[in-house]
Amino acid sequence: MLKTKKKRKTYLFQVYLWTLSFLKPFKLQLCLLVFCALVITGSQLAIPKLIQYFIDDILNDSYSNTFVLLLSFVVILVIFNIVFSAINNIVKRSLQEKASRDMQFSIYSHLRKLGFAYFERHPIGQSLALMNTEVSALQNLYRQLLPWTINNAFFSIISLILMTMISWQLSLIIIPSLLLYYIFGPYLEKKASKYAKLTADQRVSYNQKIYESIASLNDIRANASESWDIANINNKHRQLNQNMVKTVWYAYLRGTNRRLSYYIGGIVIVIWGSHLTITGQISTGAFVAFLLYYFQAMHILTSVVTSITEQRVLMDQAEKLYLFMNIQPEVEEQVEASLPEPVKGQIIFKDVSFHYPNGARLLEGINLSVFSGQKVAIVGESGNGKSTIIKLIGRFYDPVKGQILLDNQPIHQLSFKDLRENLGFVFQETYLFGKSVRENILFGKPEAAEEEVIQAAKAAFAHNFILQLPQGYDTLLGERGLKLSGGQKQRISIARMFIKNPPVILLDEATAALDTVSEKEVQNALERLTQGRTTITVAHRLSTIKNYDHIIFIDNGKVQESGSYNELMEKKGAFYHLSLGQKLEGDILHEA
Length: 592
Description:
- The chain is an alpha/beta fold.
- It has 2 domains: about 1-325, ABC transporter transmembrane region fold, CATH 1.20.1560.10; about 340-420 and about 535-590, 3-Layer(aba) Sandwich (Rossmann fold).
- The chain has helices at about 1-20, 25-60, 65-120, 125-165, 170, 175-215, 215-220, 225-280, 285-325, 385-395, 415-420, 435-440, 450-460, 465, 485-500, 515-530, 565-570, 575-590; strands at about 345-355, 360-370, 375-380, 400-405, 410, 425, 505-510, 535-540, 550-555, 560-565.
- Helix 2 (about 25-60) packs antiparallel against helix 9, helix 6 packs parallel to helix 9 and helix 13 (about 450-460) crosses helix 15.
- This is ABC transporter ATP-binding protein/permease.
């Protein structure tokens, strides 16, 4: 048990060092912060000593020059305090913003490196909560806790030294005062920390639920599930609120215990200090100075303990970011080879096998050669790995065995940029940004001229419907392109591919979710897009691939049949029976 706790503390210390590592580029600013803390501490601690001098030496002095000199010195100290406090706040704010910025960029960069595999297993709401809630919590470390701890650590050490110099007997009273604080202090600190962590976790869960609720608003309305959704939100909010109340309650008890401990010590100091003053063992001014140092030092010492505890709780939240940053990408980018110019678009699979982590084998021993300009379709029942082949070509995942080559270059040796600039993806679901039609098309080639945009739209049979929109190419599409139909969205995505002009086109059931009219329009655009390009299509409807050069039938992760459409129909094998099933389904629908 003790070893486990020790390991946990060591681990959290590593997390703490990781959070502080974002301050490394700003060492000069950190040194300036420490210097400001020393100056502020020195100016604050000088005041009680000046009060001691005033009471003991100046109060009975008939000369006013010394008093004026002392007053001038106090004014200078106050000015010093104001100036360096301002500098301290500016530097502190700058450090907070820069360190938080670097942390966010680091997390976002790592999120990009993790790629598609990570996002397919983790909801977007979870990633957003990680970026917002956890990073925001750590900002408190840079903004308040760390600078505050540095400043008050100096203050506590120097004030204890000065108190001992005034009276070592009175200084001993600090020990039972601190012991009195530690009777209930650690218990209350742990309780406050526990509920603070629970509150942080509940806030993440609540924010994730809010995101999901907004993202699914259309489905919720369509199913008249507003009451169900609001009930779920209220439940999450109630849990968050309960933990917040408990956190505040224990924080209040913690503060009360802290103040009670040093007030009791203060009463003892007043009684004992009065005796020492009456007996002449210390002067009145020294006693007053000691009292001032005591209340300041005890308040800060106990607050430092609270600050350390809060940082300990913060490390529980930072741990999530630390663990996230230590996730290794499943697909590592390497830049060992470059593609020839221009890319021809030949793709070869050599004995490729694949399975998802901790999953059953999805593809096994796939050998496939797609020549430049050839159109190849991949068909089969759902769940047999058809779309996975497309993902492997784009290096969304890497095969567990075998190799994939583009123009005789292994794709794992290419940079993502070199590889994906030569691939054009059209998925079943098209993501459109909440910007104008023009900007969505330019996503395929940001530097393209206006004429290229229009030509790409015409090639995708999108130009006419775009002109009918309220502002034409300047029409804002709304989030995810909600103002367009499914067919219109697909034609915008095809226009992107025309303007990108890649040598290889990868279609993943691009027309599966469309109605008959929209499918025909999109199919016309796809036929124009694929002319003269290497094309690999995951086909849902077999009628769309009759004119393809080669068809591959995948079953249980293996190539069961391959050949042209007519060849496979003549074999009357698996492909033939699949096509019969689709015809039968179509007939039933027609009769209905």
